[in-house]
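Retro notes, item 3 of 5
We never archived the inputs for the flavin-adenine dinucleotide complex last cycle. Fixing that now. Sequence and ligand:
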Amino acid sequence: MKTREQEFSESLNDQRSIWLNGKQVRVLEEDAFRGAIQTVCNLFRMMDDPATQESVAYVSPTTGEWVHQSFHIPQSIVDLQKRRVAFEKWSEATDGMMSRLSDYARSRLTGWYCARNQFSTYDSAFSEKIARYYQQARDENRFITVVQRDVQINRANQYDPQLLRESGLLHITRKTQDGIYLNGAKMIATAAPYTHDFLIYPVVRLNESQKSVANMLIVPADSAGLHIVCRESFAKSDLEKRDFPLSSQYDEMDALLIFDDVFIPWEYVFIHENPEAIWAIKENPHSICLGYHQAIIRLKTKLEFITGLACKIATTIGATQFLHVQEKLGELISQVETIHACIIASEAEGSMTEEGVYLPRGIAIDTAKNLGTTFYPRAVEILQLIAAGGVIQTPSSVQDFQSPISDLMNQYFRGADVDAEKRTKLFKLAWDVIGTPFASRSELYERFYSGDPIRNRAGQYLSYDTDKLTNMIDKYL
Ligand SMILES: Cc1cc2nc3c(=O)[nH]c(=O)nc-3n(C[C@H](O)[C@H](O)[C@H](O)COP(=O)(O)OP(=O)(O)OC[C@H]3O[C@@H](n4cnc5c(N)ncnc54)[C@H](O)[C@@H]3O)c2cc1C
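Structure as it came back at the time:
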């Protein structure tokens, strides 16, 4: 019997059209994707391994096989905690550096599946279609990526009904009895080269005159006419792992998706030209709360990792006795504990929906998500302030310690409590968080992965019950 890891690798050997450095490439033959795919394979192995199986998976009610926890419908706080453990295990395996491992997208899908009957008012076929796909994705271990945004051509008039096509928006160009044809583009699709399916819908409020773009779709990555256009690769090879420990394993590729007359069968068109339904999809609490519960658990792991790194660096250079360094390390610990508290609060203050789903509390999740957009850049800044010139003053490679002047190098690159080689490895790890292209992408991701941070924070104000707070003031007036 094939392992899930084998099944995953073999399944990518299809007709998908991936573009990198101006050439069409095969996903399994390209160095740029090797580290990330290997990391995903290692995670899938956890579902087959009896030692880890129970913490990351549960038994499918249909097949009796182990399937990932992100598909598990929580019916109690205990179920939610099981989901948390699974997300922790996966994020700890990459120190939170890989964010789109499909567990976010699978959780979003699970949420919409739970709420499927609410959408029957818009389309009587929605419930059946999403149920079929949810079961298929769960039991076939499908890797899914959610892609919501439109290409950044001209944000001033992009949704002008007269300009929908010129604006590059993904829209229907033809319909047949069997399905629809699509043209246009979508961004950003993280993990696109090794994804099985894209789950696509727009996240803006549309009206009837814009209905040709108001669709929710499943798009298989090997669909004819679909082009996956990758950004520059930041991946380093396995041989460079000692100098670039994160870039060599965790560069999850981002891509823009171009649709050149792509056919999608009706069974994968969950919502068809319906702005109101698309808005309900975007706002659906089941999907948002389950999806972002995973996202903030991953964020916590990443902040823990940066805090550990900062503590280690401070000790290595003998800086822990300085008050301002202690204060900054304390700030990092506060970040970790704040996000941890939000996760626990979201679970403890969760509630049962009409559908019998125990959902984490959205306000606690939103709070952690919004804090994360400033916490992470600040955490990287603190790392810079503590490590200072040390991150740049390393030899060109750990390999350099094998040189004729290695005795001298061992003397001058050492730390307060570690030898020169260990200190160099530590600072190269820090550089992969602060200064490499991988590091820059990672910071940009934390700022923007859940949309525009400014509008998201404003949204928290707009949706909050501030009357309760202003009433406290009124008694003085
Ligand atoms: C590395 C990375 C990976 C990502 N991966 C994914 C993914 O896999 N799937 C996914 O769905 N998303 C993903 N995202 C998020 C997403 O694609 C966008 O980057 C994010 O939603 C922000 O939108 P934008 O980049 O188009 O910025 P824009 O919306 O173009 O914003 C640009 C600027 O204009 C301002 N602005 C634009 N419109 C308005 C407005 N109406 N009102 C006020 N201000 C406005 C913004 O505040 C900002 O300052 C990813 C993001 C990053 C950085």
